[in-house]
What we know:
Blueprint: E1 7-10, H1 17-28, E2 33-34, H2 43-54, H3 60-77, E3 83-89, H4 95-104, E4 112-118, H5 121-131, E5 137-143, H6 146-155, E6 162-167, H7 177-190, E7 196-202, H8 207-214, H9 220-236, E8 245-252, E9 257-264, E10 268-272, E11 277-281, E12 286-293, H10 297-306, E13 309-316, E14 322-329
Parallel strand pairs: 1-5, 2-12, 3-4, 3-6, 4-5, 6-7
Antiparallel strand pairs: 7-14, 8-9, 9-12, 10-11, 13-14
Helix pairs in contact: 2-9, 3-4, 6-7
Amino acid sequence: MSEPKPILSRTPTDSSADQFAADVQYYLALQPRQLPSRYFYDALGSALFDAICRLPWYRITRAETRLLAKHGREIFDAFGRGVDTVVELGCGSGQKLMTLVQAGRRAPARRLELRLIDVSASALASSAGALSALDDVHIVTYEASYEAGLAEARAARPGSGRTLALFLGSNIGNFDPPGADAFLRGIRAALARGDGFLIGADLVKPERALLLAYDDPLGVTAAFNLNLLVRINRELSGDFDVSAFTHRAVWNARASRVEMHLVSRGRQHVRVPAAQLEFDIEDGESIWTESSYKYDPDGLRLMLERAGFRTIHQWIDGDDTFALTLVAAA
Length: 330
């Protein structure tokens, strides 16, 4: 019987309620009004997103999981047997990392450090619990933004082996192009030369398929979007009338992104005392909650190379739904 695997947890201060309040105050005062998508993921939001991933219209998770299972061995073998730390940014339920580790490790397996970074405490708990079933792993969780969690993970680097950082689920699509470039440069700065980075990205596809993925017939994505207002009401004493908003998804072909909005059905006066915010929102006015950029494979490789990475391999799902790209810090 193997010894129990310790699961440590660290929470940098940037995930505080004060930061949430400050961000709500700032972004809701912009024109157009906005809210950062990272705040979708409270306990209910994380559960709703898990449900979205199971919907037949949302193909990202299934496509990415197929690629991880099929190419996991190649991913680990690209670094010889030198990977001793895997850092996942946005771990979700942990199932994708589980798939990769099970497919990629060779026996006998060396001890593997798993460092999980997510803004959702419930996602971290779920992921850590699932991954604790693996042999010879040590799990550390960080309830933090990607940047803060990665900085802590880098400071705690355990040994001389390679680190493989993961950014899956097409989360890169939540950054605008300048933001994506800056984020990837930050990832490169946190890695040593020769470390690996595996990124998943959703590809451009017909508009109908894109919109069904973000405005499903069951209304799960709408609930996920509206829950952001529920969270503000609960945590910041807001008085949004959630029933007076509707979910809208649009494909912006020029910018190559799907946009999610919350649209007010009628003029409303809104107060958010904990954010020191009070404003009127007009009938038909929207709050822009998410942008999800879609990529072509060549553009994705060029973006990574601009940030200081060298492409090792790119795998594309059979129906051109999704790309998984493995690079090394150059």
